[in-house]
Amino acid sequence: ARGTRTLMRNFMSTTKGETHVLTSAAEVTESQKSEAESWPIWDSTEDFKAQKQPKFVLRYRLEERVVILSGSAQLSPTNGDPPFVISAGDACTFYAGFVANWVVTSPMRKHYHYFDAAGEMCAEPSKTMPVIACDAEGCGKECVDESYSIETEDICPKCVQKARGPDKRRYQAAVRCELGAPAPETGGAQPAAATAKRKTPPAAAARSSKAKAR
Ligand SMILES: [Zn+2]
């Protein structure tokens, strides 16, 4: 079951194959700095006090641009790209779709803003992102990051995995989706039930997803 579907397209921005662009402090231009001055500030100082070197996974649903004011973090992209460090003075653009494990290694403050596919400033993802609720009975879990589309239903990965009997057979034809759109085959970890026998060709899946969006 889906919420604000019409916005979906905006979030599938093209990234020219890049997941992020890091500009080291020495290369950050004055205009980059002054643009960022009006952006909100993310401050991890309190988190840092509560848990030494906070660790978390960030999955970018929108492009985010940041200018680091203080502190540092190590980022390990989940796509196998080499880990890198961002620290005071650096600017970084994270494109939509970028996923990384973060370790904040020194209390970080950064200016940040989100941008849509057209490069326009936009509200943060929590206020604009589509909502997909799992349609499996008694679940309802939010599963926009990864869902399985079957007929008119959206099923979360957990429910696909634990399905038995008729549902299990039915879910074998489900299409794996990321942000509500059919996902490219990545070879990553996927519930076996959904990948074992995929009968819907990608073109048909794309058509049915468009049809549902109307
Ligand atoms: Zn579920």
Automatic annotation (TrEMBL):
Residues 181-214 are annotated as: Disordered. InterPro entries: RmlC-like_jellyroll, RmlC_Cupin_sf, UGlyAH_Cupin_dom. Residues 181-208 have a biased composition (Low complexity). Residues 33-112 form the (S)-ureidoglycine aminohydrolase cupin domain. This is (S)-ureidoglycine aminohydrolase cupin domain-containing protein. It comes from Phaeocystis antarctica.
